[in-house]
Amino acid sequence: MVVAVDGPAAAGKGTLARRLAAELGLPHLDTGLLYRATGRRVLDAGGDPRDPAIAEAAARALLPADLARGDLRGPEADAASSAVAAIPAVRAALLDWQREFGRRHGAVLDGRDIGTVVFPDAPVKLFVTASAEERARRRFRELQARGVAADPAQVLAELQARDAQDSRRAVAPLVPAADAVVLDTSDLDADAAFAAALRVVRARFGG
């Protein structure tokens, strides 16, 4: 069983995917962490995340421990992640890693191209979204909770820039798979979003 959960930043897909994985007894993989960790490796080395050669080398050197770092969130990490994710060689380097994770025992994977590229034949595909304003409010609250100083207007601008880069990139752009169920969480809390997603999963698997 593979469940693909895609969507833009701060739509709630990570929280939803973790809860689905726990409910279904499946491993969970936040594939965005792969790109965040790659971007962080490039920054640590003083490199430019937009440099294809440097970014690909960082992706191929990625270790499981890199995904557990505590500095993979925030504006700098967001920008670096989006930059490396636009590089075809980086996506190719990380594709097999993601597919092997899902094939091993089944999984719930969340990201931006799970249903379109990583597992195009996944039996369940969800595209989780929300308005840019609502997502920016969520991201701002998240930053506040972590004690990170942030300006609401800047958070919205950065999120919109990230959306534009992710949706317009030439390789694996952020778009719903043709057979994905679109779940707009703008007016849903986490429990309501989870209930809606679980109904979709159970309908597909007849459980």
UniProtKB/TrEMBL annotation:
Protein name: Cytidylate kinase
Compartment(s) of residence: Cytoplasm
Residues annotated as domain Cytidylate kinase: 3-199
Annotated ATP binding sites: G7, P8, A9, A10, A11, G12, K13, G14, T15
Pfam families: Cytidylate_kin (PF02224)
Annotated source species: Paracraurococcus ruber
Record keywords: ATP-binding, Cytoplasm, Kinase, Nucleotide-binding, Transferase
Entry's Gene Ontology molecular function annotations: kinase activity
Reaction it catalyzes: CMP + ATP = CDP + ADP; dCMP + ATP = dCDP + ADP
Class of enzymatic activity (EC top level): transferase
EC number: 2.7.4.25
Major site of localization recorded for this protein: cytoplasm
Keyword ATP-binding: yes
Family: Belongs to the cytidylate kinase family. Type 1 subfamily.
Signal peptide: none
Tree of life domain: Bacteria
